[in-house]
Recover the amino acids of this structure.
């Protein structure tokens, strides 16, 4: 098995488990699935959100859950060390109003990866924070009422701030926000924001995640191929993540990443020729 120079497709860096209350399966079931699929290295990337998030259900880990996660994770690291490298990471949802609270909690553990995301956006005139990545109708409706264009602009600004503020190692699913708004198009202003966000990722020496959950939702990964192409032109490191919320989703569609990268690099080379 050869590794690709641009990405390691035997390394899944974005795996959730039932600790987050919206995924199924134990950590061990994900480990067995990864071994079954021939992966060499995985990183669990469990959800942490700011304590001030105002939402009608809990879709993240408590501090106690994180203690259990580290205990079980280290047991699995020992048991499976001959077959799979297992890392314990966190997907941290940024809270622009209380970054110090997140920084404090992040400092309590040693993470193999810190994935930076922005999931919950507080807005006036809504009873709960907007969940930007949810397919639930009440979220989709609340985002529409607030205004998709404005929510997206705020999303990219705040995510860029998160990249500057948090001790991140990668940015997760960069353009997944509002993925369930039908027919939504990025404006030229959004494209400019994306360029600045990528420059910030590069300046912070972070990686860009190619999140293959997008293949299920829209047929392309998060971020979209045009954004991955910009990242290749800026020589930003790429890292693969399945965003698995079920054991069988570990490493999903990683073969499609290679085909996509081949296509994008040949486009870049043709433009240069
Ligand atoms: Zn999740
Ligand atoms: Zn996420």
């Amino acid at each position: 098995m050869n590794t690709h120079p641009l990405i390691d497709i035997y390394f899944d860096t974005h795996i959730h488990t039932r600790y987050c209350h919206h995924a199924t399966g134990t950590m061990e079931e994900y480990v067995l699935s990864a071994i079954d699929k021939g992966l060499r290295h995985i990183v669990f990337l469990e959800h942490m959100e700011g304590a001030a998030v105002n939402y009608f259900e809990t879709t993240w880990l408590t501090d106690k859950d994180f203690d259990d996660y580290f205990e079980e994770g280290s047991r699995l690291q020992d048991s499976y060390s001959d077959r799979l490298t297992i890392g314990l990471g966190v997907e941290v949802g940024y809270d622009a109003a209380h970054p110090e609270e997140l920084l404090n909690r992040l400092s309590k553990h040693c993470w193999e990866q810190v994935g930076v995301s922005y999931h919950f956006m507080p807005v006036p005139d809504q009873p709960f924070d907007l969940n930007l990545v949810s397919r639930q109708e009440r979220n989709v409706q609340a985002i529409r009422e607030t205004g998709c264009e404005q929510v997206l602009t705020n999303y990219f600004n705040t995510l860029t701030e998160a990249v500057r503020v948090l001790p991140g190692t990668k940015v997760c699913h960069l353009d997944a926000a509002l993925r369930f708004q039908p027919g939504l198009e990025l404006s030229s202003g959004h494209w400019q924001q994306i360029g600045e966000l990528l420059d910030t990722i590069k300046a912070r020496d972070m990686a860009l995640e190619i999140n293959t959950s997008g293949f299920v939702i829209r047929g392309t990964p998060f971020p979209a191929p045009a954004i991955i192409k910009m990242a290749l032109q800026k020589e930003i490191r790429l890292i693969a993540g399945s965003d698995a919320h079920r054991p069988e989703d570990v490493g999903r569609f990683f073969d499609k990443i290679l085909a996509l990268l081949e296509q994008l690099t040949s486009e870049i080379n043709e433009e240069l020729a």
User: Anything to note?
Assistant: Residues 4 and 258 are 8 Å apart (CA to CA).
